[in-house]
Amino acid sequence: MKKSSHGRWVYLSRRFATAKHGTEALHAPFKEISMRIPVLQQREIARLHFHHPQSARAISRITGVCANSVGELRKLIQASGKNWPDIANLDDDQWELALETQNRSVAQRKESPDWSWVHEQMQLADATREQLWQEWRAEHPNGIGQSQFNEGYRKWIGQQRVVMRQIHRPGDRMFTDFAGRKVEIRGGPGEEVREANLFVAVMGCSSHTYLELVWQQSTACWLQAQANAFEYFGGVPNWVVSDNLKAAVIRREKERIVLNPQYLECLKHYGTAPMPTKQRSPKQNAKAEAGVKIAQRWVLFALRNRVFFSLEEANVEIRRLNEMLNDKNFSKHDDTRRSRFVALDAPALRPLPTTRYELSEWRHSVRVGDDYLVEHGKSFYSVPWQYRGDLVDLRITANALEIFRRNKRLATHSLMAEPGEISRYEEHMPVAHRRVMEGEPHALLAWAKAHGPVVEQLFTHHLMERHDLTNGLKAARKLRDLAREHGDERFLAACRYAQTCNITALRSIESILKKKADLMAQQGTPQKDQDVRESHEDVRGPEYFGEEA
Q: Which of 138, 294, 335, 426, CA to CA, is 20 to 30 A from 364?
C-alpha cells in the first residue's frame, strides 16, 4: 500500500472490489480515478503542464488545486498520449472522454490537526511525527492518516515566513505592479483635476523596466499596459507575476484562485501564464516592489514640479525618463539594465503573436430563450435553434460577440449598435420559421432584387404600388413559389415577356409559364390566341361592329 493519500484510496477501492467481485478483482488493473476538478481548471492545469516544465506543486500554487490532484491529472494526460494541440480545442464532453476525467465519486473531508500545536510539540527533544500522529489519532479516530499528516505538516512549514533570495532565469518572469504615488493631470478650463496611475513592469533577470501612466487600475487599463509592456520588451516571458488586484485575481478561495477571465485570456493570447503572489506576501513580487520604489524616486520625484494637461503629454516625459533609467549604470556593477536585457532576457523571450490582443468581456451562464436568442446590451443574437433553453457563455469584443457552449463556438455576430435590434442567421432557424421569414415583404423584395431589375419591378408593383396590398403580398408569395417550381431562368424569361406585354397579373404570369408563351415568342411561333381565325358563319367580323376589316 502506498503512503500517499491516493495510495490509500486505491487500496480501499480494491478492497471494496474484492468484497464485491472476489479475490480476482484485487489483481485487476485499477483504472478508474475520481476526478472532481472542474473542466475549466483541468484545462488550465493541462495548459501549464505543456506550457513549461513545472512540478505538480508549482502548478498547484498557481491554480489552487491540490498537488496530488494535479499529479493525477498529469498522469492521465501522459497516459492519453495526447499533446496540447490535440486537446486544446475540445469541448467539455470531448475533453472528459479523451482524458477519462469523469467525476465518479463524492469528496470526503477528514479532520486535520492544529498544525501550530504539532509544530510546538516537534520542538521538544526526541519528538517524531509518527508518535505525534498516533497520539492525535487516538483522540480523533476519524482524522487524517499518517501520510496525510506528514504531508500537511510539511505544507504548513512551507507556508511560514522564510526569507529566500530568488534566482531569476533569463526570460522567465515579468513582475508587474502599480505605484502607490499618482500623477496629477490638469484638464482645460472648468475641468476637474484627475490622477493617473503608474504601471511598472520589470524583467526578473535584467531588471529592465517599463513604465506607463494609465487612468485607472481597471481591467481594461491593466490589460492595455500588459500588452504594451510585451511589445516594449519585444517578446513574452514564461510567467507574469502580479499582486492580487481585482484586474488579475477576482478572489482567492480556500482551494483555488479565481482569476479574472479577461486577464487569463490576454495571457493565453500571448502564450504566457499568470503567477499571482500570495496574499500579503510582497516578497514574492520583490522585483516589482523594487521597481516601483526606483520609479518613484528617479522618475516621479523628477516630475514633482511639472504640470501636465493630458495623459499623452505625461507619458512622453515618462518614456524619456524610463529610457534614462534603463541606460543608467547599476551602483555595484558596470553594466546597465538595457545591456543585461539585450544579453540575457531578450534571447530567451518567447516571440510576440502576429496580432495584438483585443480586449474582450465575458458573460458566463447566459440562458438561451425559447426564441433561440440571447440578450446582450438590450439587443438579441441567435444560436442554432436546437440549443434553446441551454446555458451559454458570451465573449464580447469591440466589434463582435461570440457565443460558446461548453467551450464550443456556436455563433459569431457583429455587435449591434442600437438596443432592440436582432442579429439572426437563417441557418439558425427551423424550417417552418424560415418559411415565415421568407414570406415577409422585405424578404420578398430582397429576393426579387437579387434576381434582376425585371423581377424587382414586378414585385415592387405587387408589394408597394397596388391599392390592395394584402392581395399583393399573396401574389408576391405565389410568384416566388412559381420561380421555385419552374426555375429561376424560366421565371425570369416569363417576367421579361410579361413586361413587353405590360402584364403584371398573377394569373397572366401563370398562363405564360403554363402555355410557354415566352418560349414561342422567342422561336417566332404564333400563339393560338393570336392566330388569324378562320371565317365561318358564327364569326361576325369587324364589319358587324362598324369597324374596318
A: 426
